[in-house]
Structures are given as structure tokens and as C-alpha cells.
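Researcher: Go.
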Amino acid sequence: MADYIKFVDVTKCDGCRACMVACKNWNDLPAQPEEFTGSIQSHNTLTANTWNVITYDEQVTANGNFEWLFRHKSCHHCGEAFCEKACPETAISHTKFGSVVVDADKCVGCGYCVNNCQFGVIQLATYVDDKGKEYRKAQKCDLCTGRLEEGLRPACVTSCHTNCLVYDEKEKVLAEAEKRLAKIKERFPNANIYNPPGIKGTTTVYLLADKPTVYGLPEDPKVALSQIVWKDYAQPLGKMMLGATTMAVIGAAISTAINKGKGEHEGGQDHE
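Model: Structure:
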């Protein structure tokens, strides 16, 4: 199966927010009204129940005019994901589609993923069980993995009327992105394709009109080496050693039981 990616050409976005509505509808996420803060942007940032937001950044052009820089802000689905490396369980993983997903049954709500995501994407949602006890689960965009499994495109992509959002074969999309980049360079000299190599690329790739920092994105994000060592080497080794220790304890218990039985049996013979 060919690799597919979601491509976001921010220069085609008109800020209509249809992608936000489609995401809420498909994922059955509750509305989250926010107080007016003086900005035309509807929500300040992503939350556990708002998985994509259109950000509005004002910019003065070279000729002194004013224009909006829009961005469809959502999970990047990193090739080497901060959240996955930070998770002490196996609750966060990659699917065959390259999407990074959360297994709610395994999530313990520790929040390490929230603290380590350099994009500020993943968040904790609070729930209440039948006994009134609160518990937390990590939540974020899953690239509509359920739709992808049915051969459908992500809900946000289907709602985009400007073709700002595209979901297609990776090689085809990246080739078109390079052509598009060359075309817009005259108007946007700092335009660039945002697909950070330091995290082994992303499944959501952006064509930005300006430098990543203008959109609040890190220029060259990388997962800390300590996290990689802990997740990929120390944790599996620790579990393996714990397994060996557990087997040793069980083995010792069985051996003790056998010897005890043997001793009692031998003791019985002495009495005879």
C-alpha cells in the first residue's frame, strides 16, 4: 500500500472553519464556547474536545497592506512522536496509515504526553465513572483512522472547499507541494514546506507562507535522546527483567512446594 499523507496548503485557506465543524461532527465532540477575547479566532488553541483550530495571525505585507495568515492547526502525526516516546504505558502508537493514536483502555491519564508534545496538541479530558469518581484520558486528532480503514478521507479534508486540505499518495502530494512552493515564492519569500526531518517527518505536512515560528511552530523539533533511550531500550529491558524476576519467583515457589511435599512424603516413610 502506498504511503498517504495529509497536506495543508495554508495559502489556500480562507479561514471558513468547515474543517473544525466536520471534525466535531464526525468525532462526536462537544461544543466548547469561549469568551470573546478581541480576536476573530474562534478558539484560543486545541483542547481535549477541539481537535483542530483555524488560527488567525495578522501580518503586514511588504507594501504596507494587511493580510491574515491562516493555519489549520491539528496533530502532525510525527514519524517519531513526542507523545508516544513519553507514554509510560503502550497507550500511544502508530497505525499502518502513519497516524498516531491513543488506546483509551491503556491510557492511565498521567499527562506525560501532554507535557512532552512540542506542538501542544495532545490534551487530557476528564470523565466521571458510574460511582462519581473522576478519571482522565489523553485525547487528540487520530487522522480519522476509522474512516481511513473504510477507504474514506479524513472528515476535515472532505469539508475543505478550497483544496487547502488534501489526502493523497505521499510522493504525489510532495511533488505537487514543491511546484506550489515555487509558484508562491514571489508573493511569500519565506514560504516553506514544513515536514521536520528531526522527527522523521510527519503524516500531516504543511506548506507555510512564512517561517514556522510565525505560526508558533518549532523550527527543528527533535525528540530528546533520553526519551528515545528510555522508551525504546530501557523500558523494554526493564519489562524483560521484571518478567525474568517474576518467572524466577514463580519457579522458586514451585520448587519450594515440590521440596516441601517431598520432605513430608519422606518424613512419612521414617515414621513407618
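Model: The helical segments are 18-27, 82-86, 112-116, 145-149, 155-159, 170-184, 225-271.
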